[in-house]
Amino acid sequence: MGIMRIFVASKSMIMRKGLLFCLVGGLFSVLGCAMKKMPEGELVRVEFSRHGTMARAEFEGCVEQDSTGAFVLRAMKETYGPLFEKRLDAETMNRFRQIIEEEKMYKYKERYTPMMQVLDGWGWSFSAKFSDGSVISSRGENAGPRGDGLKRIRSYMQELVSHI
Fold it and tell me: I need a surface site. Which of 47, 54, 128, 158 has the fewest CB within 10 A?
């Protein structure tokens, strides 16, 4: 009888410790997500690409500062099309920053994957660099974040190069 009580007491203690561990782990994960905030520096680079099953990118676009300090956009006007180049002003760069902030893209996870294995499909990557050294970097295969952030970044890049 004594051994049975020890076994039940041990099992109960293990269950309590397990529950405590789960609660503490959950708290840390919630706090970790809540702590992500929009970088304070100016946006100096933004890049987005989407890949299908073909060897080359379905879409790619990148805005970055050149050696003179001017912003240069290199992006596709259409799916699987050639890259076009356009110089941008700082106000246009602020619009990209605004999209990132409005869509809370700074809260994106580093990686998105589906719950089940997919052997064929699509992938994407997004990154943004700020003057304070902050970097947002996220990518996915057959899965992505909620919201329209990636779609808005792509659409804005295509809109800008469509006027060339």
Answer: 54
